[in-house]
Amino acid sequence: MSEQLLTDEERNLVATLGYTTYTFSKICGKGDTRDPDQDEWARHVNALQNMVLAQAAARAYPEEFRLLGETFELRNREQ
Questions:
Q1: Are 17 and 6 in contact (CB under 8 A)?
Q2: Are 64 and 72 in contact (CB under 8 A)?
Q3: Residue 41 contacts by C-beta under 8 Å, 6 or more apart in sequence?
Q4: Would you call 56 exposed, middle or buried from its count of C-beta atoms within 10 A (0-12, 13-18, 19+)?
Q5: What is the DSSP letter of 65?
Q6: End-to-end CA distance of the chain
Q7: What's the DSSP call for residue 14?
Q8: pTM value?
Q9: What whole-number distance in Å separates Cα of residue 70 and Cα of residue 75?
C-alpha cells in the first residue's frame, strides 16, 4: 500500500501491545482464576490497541472523529 493508514509509531505500538498480551499469558498462573484474570487484562490491552487504531479513522474522517490529544468542532454535520 503506497499510503500508510497508521504511522510507524502507531503500528509499532499496536504490535508492542499485542506482545504485552502474550507476555501476560506467560506469567499468568494455571489455576481456576486464569481465564477471568486473562479476560480482565486483555480487555484493557485491546482498548489501548483500539485507541491507536482509531487514529486512522480520525485522519480519514476529520470532521467526524478526532485524533488522540486533539479537539475538533462539528461543522454542519448532517444527521
A1: no
A2: no
A3: 21, 24
A4: middle
A5: -
A6: 33
A7: H
A8: 0.81
A9: 16
In 1-79, the DSSP E strands lie at none
Contact 38, 28 (CB under 8 A): yes
pLDDT digits (tens, 9 = 90+) for 29-72: 999 999 999 999 999 999 999 999 999 999 999 989 999 999 87
**Between vectors from CA 10 to CA 54 and to CA 7, what angle results, nearest 5°?**
95
Cell triple for residue 52? 491507536
**69-74 contacts, C-beta under 8 A, 24 or more apart:** none
Q: Check the CA dihedral 7-8-10-15 and report its sign.
A: positive
